[in-house]
């Protein structure tokens, strides 16, 4: 057994790390201590730019549709609002990546896929984007679907282990793994070190 191909997809909207820093520095909730920390952590990430499904970046605050239009940007977006965007964009991004995958693997037809494993810790829905992939890509109605959720960055390893187990049990199996993480949807303004670091390094894809 082997990995036949890997493909990725990112939202079309992106911003530089310097833009992200200036955006965070403008949040009134942070004091001088937090701003000094932000400047150190953002400059040390070695990240040039990040992609996001959020359209507010670069807009005038009066045009925000995700963040609050108030001077302090509070209240923060609700969990429901964040997850609604996840449901929408998880479908489009996973489909884009999968179509790219099959385009780059001409020897494999989508109808040959026997198992679909989806992975995410940044949103959920029922049915999930695994069901969308089955319909959008024309996979077999009898394809086996599994979802690995809320395991963080580690989740890619259980997904590969599950695919390995499946292929051991059935050497003819062809497993499609689709991982969607939309971390920017969970940006929070808490002046806590862990939250500030997470805001500085994670993005969407």
Describe this protein's structure:
- This protein is an alpha/beta fold.
- 38% of the residues lie in helices and 11% in strands.
- It is built from 6 helices and 5 strands; from the N terminus they run βααβαβαβαβα.
- It has helices at residues 17-25, 32-43, 79-103, 129-137, 156-169, 193-201, and strands at residues 14-16, 49-51, 115-120, 144-149, 175-179.
- The strands form 2 sheets. The chain has a 3-stranded parallel β-sheet with strand order 4-3-5, sandwiched between helices.
- Strand 3, helix 4 and strand 4 (144-149) form a beta-alpha-beta unit.
- The longest helix is centred in the middle third of the chain and has 25 residues, at 79-103.
- The two termini are 26 Å apart.
- The model has no long low-confidence stretch (mean pLDDT 95).
Helix content estimate:
25-40%
Specify Rg, calculated over alpha carbons: 19 Å
Order of helices and strands: EHHEHEHEHEH
Instruction: Report the principal-axis shape.
Output: elongated
Assembly form of the protein: single chain
Q: What strand line-up does the widest sheet have?
A: 4-3-5
Distance between the termini: 26 Å
Unreliably modeled segments: none
Work out the helix count. 6
The proportion of strand residues reads 5-15%
Average pLDDT, all residues: 95
Largest sheet: 3 strands, parallel
Class from helix and strand fractions: alpha/beta
| Strand segment tally | 5
